Amino acid sequence: MNRNAMLRTGFAVFAVVAAWVLFFGLPRWYSAQKAATVAAAGASAAATPAQTAVRKITATLFYVSNDGVTLTPAQREVPFSTNVAEQARAIIAAQLEPAPPLVSAIPPDTKLREVFVTERGDAFVDLSGEIASKHPGGSLDEIFTVYTLVNALTVNLPAIKRVQILVDGKEVDTLAGHVDLRHPLAKSLDWLVHDSH
User: Fold this and answer.
1) Which residues of 173-196 are buried (b: 16+ CB within 10 A; e: fewer)?
2) How many independent structural domains does the chain possess?
3) 78 DSSP β-pair partners
4) 127 SS3 class
């Protein structure tokens, strides 16, 4: 067999092998890879709800009672965090949300800007200006607003001993002229509804 014939034969064998790979081998391999990818994606999708399910804790939040002269506690689920400041944020965020039919002591449209917690257990809750500008006024209403926030943190988080309310990142003397906010305030359950039984 001369060299040209050998080259032609080699080329023919190469062409047959290449054609087989191109038309049979690659499609089978691609189909197998695609099936494996789809199966993995399906397994991942099936696992996602369990993986993305947010752990929750039950927190005690506070609302104005039906008689309007006390605060009443209510249990609400909030996202869990091992970080005290993040847990405090979650609790305050839940406290700011409307919870019909319960009546909130927090003025509407008030937003949480940030929560800072010091090593000695003082929490600083920074709220948007609506906490003051949309406050209805009156000493009892102001007490309810302040102690809703103070108690929400001090009752649920033993690491937090006192709470100071800030407005738009600044210290304020008061929200509506009655409660001194120049220093952090400790928990006070004096305004909670007490069961007479």
Assistant:
1) eebbeebebeebbebeeebbeeee
2) 2
3) 57
4) strand
Percent of the chain at pLDDT above 70?
Answer: 72
Does a structural domain hold residue 139? Answer: yes
Shared-domain flag, residues 93 and 144:
yes
Dist. CA 153–CA 72, nearest whole Å: 15
Is there a domain that residue 197 lies in?
A: no
Maximum alpha-carbon separation in the chain? 113
- Residues 80, 135, single domain; the answer is yes
**Residue corresponding to tokens 């091992």:** 82
pLDDT digits (tens, 9 = 90+) for 39-54: 555 554 454 454 568 8
Classify strands 112-117 and 170-171 as parallel, antiparallel or unpaired.
Answer: unpaired
Split at pLDDT 50, 70, 90, the class of 164 is: very high
Q: How far apart are CA 109 and CA 81, in angstroms?
A: 25
Helix axes 84-96, 139-156, angle to 10 degrees: 140
Domain extent at residue 27: 1-53
3-class secondary-structure state, position 84: helix
75 and 148: one domain?
Answer: yes
